[in-house]
Structure formats: C-alpha cells, structure tokens
TrEMBL record:
Superkingdom of this protein's organism: Eukaryota
Domain Thiamine pyrophosphate enzyme TPP-binding: 400-548
Family: Belongs to the TPP enzyme family.
Reported cofactor(s): thiamine diphosphate; Mg(2+)
Keyword Protein biosynthesis: no
Name of the protein this chain belongs to: 2-hydroxyacyl-CoA lyase
InterPro entries, sorted: DHS-like_NAD/FAD-binding_dom (IPR029035), HACL1-like (IPR045025), THDP-binding (IPR029061), Thiamin_PyroP_enz_cen_dom (IPR012000), Thiamin_PyroP_enz_TPP-bd_dom (IPR012001), TPP-bd_CS (IPR000399), TPP_enzyme_TPP-bd (IPR011766)
C-alpha cells in the first residue's frame, strides 16, 4: 500500500508550503499531533499556558511581520479563550489565523467532548471562517484563511479542523497533487492606489494650508511607510504627530515632532493629512472642541469603508506606503516647504520646547519612594543607551502606559506595542514573546503595571523555556491604579474589612515568580538599584523580571481616563 498521511500531517504540510514559519498556541485534544508535525516540518511552535496570551502573541506577530500570526487551540473552551486574540487582531486590523480542533462531525449535536459550533462563535471576530469537512479540503482551506488575513484591510480568519478529519488519511501522491493545485490557484490582491487626480488634489490642499499637520498611526507602521513619511516631513517641513504605536516611524526627537504640543497641533491645524490612523476615540473622532471645526482631513486608508464612515474632505484609498510615494512624487515636481520661521512651525516648536522642559524638570528629580516619573526616566535612558537595533518596548497598564507614552522615546519603527485601539489589558507577555520571535536581533523591554502584568504573568515560564531576551519591568504599586483609593464613607457594608476592589497584596514579590523557573529576578526601590538591574539584564539578554516598588499613591485612578470611570 502506498505511503499514507493523516490530516495532522497534511495541515502542517499546507502551512509550511504556504510560507508559515511560526505558530503560537496551547496543545491538547485533538491538535497535539498537528503541533508536533508542524515542528517536524520546520515551523517554530511556541507553546503557552493560556490561549489568550498565545492569541495576543499571534496578533502582534502579524503586525510586526506583515504575515498572518497563527494561533492553534483545542476545541470548545480553547477556541473561546482564543477569541481574545482573534478579536484583538480584528479591532487593530492585524493579520492573524486561529486554527481550532473541533469535535467529531458524526457526533454533532449530541454533546460530544468540548462540542461547540465554533464557526458561529468566531463570526463577529473574523473576516472569513471555514471548516474542513474532509481531509482533501485541508490544503484549500489553509490557503483560504491565510490569504484574506493579509488582503485589503488585514484582520483575523478562522480554520476549523474536526477530530475525524485530522484522523482521515490519503496517499502522499494525492496530498502532493492537492498542495500543487492549491499553490497554483492562489491569487494575491494587488496593492491599492488612488488615481493620480486625487493625489494632485491632496497635494494642492496641503500646499494651500496655513497650518498643516501630518498624523500617522500603526497602519502606516504596518505598511512599512517610514521612509516615505520621513521624506514627506523633511521635504515639506510639515509638523507631525504619531499615534502611540505610530511612534518611531519618524524619530520622536525629530525637530518637527509635535507630540509635545499635541493639543495645540490638533486644535489649531487647518489641514490634517492622516495616514494609517482612524479618526476614532484615540483621535477624538476628528471633532471639535479638540479639533478646529473647519479642519480639512485628508484620510489615507486601505479601507474604503473607513473613509466612507469618516466623510473626510478628501479620502485616498490605498496602501499607506504607495500613497505617500505618489504624494512625494507629485511634490517633487513642484516643491514647497514651510520653513522654520513659518509662524505655525515656530508656535509648535516653542510649545514643544516649553512642555518638554517642564517635563524634564519633573523627570530630573530623584523621587524615593518612587513615583512613576523617576523610574521611567531611568528606563528611558537605559533603552536609548542600547542604540540600534533599538529594543521593542511593550507597554500596558493605566498610569504606567500613560506615563510611558510621554516619557519613553521611540527612535525606530514598530518598536512600541501597547494596549492599542481596544485598550486591551493582558497583552503584555504575549506581545513580548511575539516581538522576541519576530525580531530576534532586538532586545524586548516590557514596562508593565502590576495589574496588567497579572493577566499573563505565568508566561514568564514561557520566556525562560524558550530563552527569549525579554526584560519585564513591573511597576508595583499594590493594585489597579495603586491600592485603596476609597474615601472613608465608601468603606462600609458587611464586607468593609475586605481589601478594596483595586487592591493587591502590598509589596508582592513578583521578581520571585521568574526565579521559580530558573530566570533572574530583581527587587528595586532606589535609582541605583534600578540602574544596576537594567544594566545587568540588558547586557545578559536573558529572561528577567524587575520588580519596581512604586509609592501606592503616586498614580491617578483610571490613568488619564477618569471621565470614563
């Protein structure tokens, strides 16, 4: 009888053949065989403790590489836990594929082990989902989830592999024939670009603007648009404002950076070219009073639906890098530049200098017990001291992320990962692992609040197991926002002696957690202790947790979003 292979081998072969090099997940019934076969075929499998973290890793991997991040889960509850990552990919528009095993098809509806209608469960969070109902469909189904994940506006797709399909067999020659047919039939969407007449209009609006501003976000980072962006900024002299994850596409310290004058820049600009950033809550929906009511938006987005939703003065549908290339070409034929003495450029530059010097005065003080600023300055200086390739910074938490966004400096593209469009807490360790795997040449530094760290803290074992160069810095202020913030009259009722809903165990020894698995932990409470821990751990490039003790009353409730809480 000819050599046969089962559904596990065929699925692994399909992924390997179609360019997959990494997979994240949690194994178990019925997908352990699939993970093992994938490893045999040259795919690196990173095994996690929890599908939620593995899913966050897969979503961030998609963003950092531009290729779909893969998450493998077991059936039922595994699939449900994985939805955290799939939905995160959808909201942030990153390419990801979730693959879940599912129960035996013949037992559907009878209460089989971990039974769930998974195709129905993933619907709200996926661009496309498909179930392979026979082994011969596996190669086609694999291609059908990989391709839409990256086409148009990226997002999450889902592949369902029933237990019985994974156990079916076909001959090697049949498998090869199927793989070759699917490979030949794959069609990739061309990069979208707007007509040149639209580009001319956009440049004309920019040229006539009194107070233009360029805003860019993680869509521009995903499109690898940094070269064209820098060219545009430097050619035209237009000030720029990155969204938090757009930081580093043009160096944060660039003389035209307007981050230190954000309110002035968005409040007074008359034309805003917005590249790969949505006019959502992060940009105050593009509405007054934060923006001038007469501001003209030129929106560059890969999604036509997004542009229709926002109704800008001018919408350019296309890949950010391609559109900027066209804009630069149009400007080159008839150049214009604002010049440093332009009142608008001077006003922003002055405001930035004023705000930065106020912030630097605060940062210059060594406050002990630590507030948020003192350790953040020390961390900033240590990260800048690494040079190039710059470390990837992963940031989550309320106060920790807010302060970090203002203080930490990004000098290179795609070196900041944070809670993103959805404000997702719990992404930290998953993002660290994705960054270390996607950029093996870079150190990864997580700056986390103790609450944010708690969601995925067990994955420090995963860091140690795979020997990843990740330094996790925990800002430990004893709880969500920092301990008990209640007024005396709020402390009442039969359970008034319980800790506050925002409190954790004070002085928690988070650094010992990683030591349980053979990693290195540091407990720090003074500037010298922190400097020494950073210096040692950055040069060792090994898994580390630095437990930074912060004054529990240093932060603000809800970070900068008190109005929502």
């Amino acid at each position: 009888m000819a050599d046969c292979l089962d559904g596990n081998v065929l699925a692994a072969k399909s992924f390997a053949r179609f360019g997959v090099t990494h997979m994240f997940g949690v194994v178990g019934i019925p997908v352990t065989g699939l993970a093992n076969r994938a490893v045999q075929l040259g795919i690196r499998f990173i095994a996690f403790h929890n599908e939620q973290s593995a899913g966050y890793a897969a979503s961030a991997y998609g963003y950092l590489t531009g290729r779909p991040g893969l998450l493998l889960t077991v059936s039922g509850p595994g699939c449900v836990h994985g939805l955290a990552g799939l939905s995160n990919a959808m909201i942030n528009t990153w390419p990801m594929v979730m693959i879940s095993g599912s129960s035996d098809q013949k037992d559907s509806g009878r209460g089989d082990f971990q039974e769930l209608d998974q195709i129905e469960a993933v619907k709200p969070f996926s661009k496309f989902s498909v179930k392979a109902i026979d082994i011969k469909e596996i190669p086609d189904c694999v291609a059908r989830v990989l391709d839409p994940a990256v086409s148009g506006r990226p997002g999450g797709c889902y592949l369902d592999l029933p237990t019985d399909v994974l156990h079916q067999t076909i001959t090697e020659s049949e498998a090869e024939k199927l793989l070759t047919e699917v490979e030949k039939g794959r069609v990739f969407e061309a990069t979208k670009a707007p007509p040149s007449s639209e580009i001319e209009k956009a440049v004309s609006v920019l040229r006539k603007a009194e107070r233009p501003l360029i805003v860019f976000g993680k869509g521009a980072a995903y499109a690898r648009a940094e070269g064209e962006l820098k060219k545009l900024v430097e050619r035209t002299g237009i000030p720029f404002l990155p969204t938090p994850m757009g930081k580093g596409l043009v160096n944060d310290d660039h003389e035209l950076a307007a981050s230190g004058a954000r309110s002035l820049a968005i409040g007074k600009c008359d034309v805003a070219l917005v590249v790969g950033a949505r006019l959502n809550w992060l940009l105050h929906f593009g509405e007054s009073p934060k923006w001038d009511k007469d501001v003209k938006f030129i929106l560059v987005d890969v999604s036509e639906e997004e542009i229709k939703l926002r109704k800008p003065h001018l919408g350019l549908v296309g890949d950010a890098k391609k559109v900027l290339e066209m804009i630069n070409k149009e400007i080159k034929d008839d150049p214009f530049c604002l010049g440093k003495s332009r009142p608008w450029v001077e006003a922003i530059s002055k405001k930035v200098k004023d705000n930065v010097s106020k912030m630097e005065a605060q940062l210059a003080k060594d406050v002990v017990p630590f507030n948020f600023l003192t350790p953040m300055r020390i961390i900033r200086d240590a990260i800048l001291g690494v040079g190039s390739p710059a470390p990837v910074v992963v940031s989550e938490g309320a106060n920790t992320m807010d302060v970090g966004r203002s203080v930490l400096v990004q000098t290179e593209p795609r070196t900041r990962l944070d809670a993103g469009t959805w404000g997702t807490m719990g992404v930290g360790l998953g993002y660290c692992i994705a960054a270390a795997v996607a950029n093996p040449e870079r150190l990864v530094v997580a700056v986390e609040g103790d609450s944010g760290f708690g969601f995925s803290a067990m994955e420090v074992e995963t860091l140690v197991r795979y020997k990843l160069p990740v330094v996790v810095i925990v800002f430990n202020n004893g709880g969500v926002y920092g301990g008990d913030r209640r007024s005396p009259e709020e402390v009442s009722g039969p359970f008034k002696d319980d800790p506050a809903p925002t409190s954790f165990v004070p002085g928690a020894a988070y650094h010992t957690l990683i030591e349980a698995f053979g990693g290195k932990g540091y407990l720090v409470g003074t500037p010298d202790e922190l400097k020494s821990a950073l210096s040692e751990s950055f040069s060792a490039r090994k898994p580390v947790v630095i437990n930074v003790i912060i004054d529990p009353f240093a932060g603000a409730e809800s970070g900068r979003m008190q109005h929502k809480n």
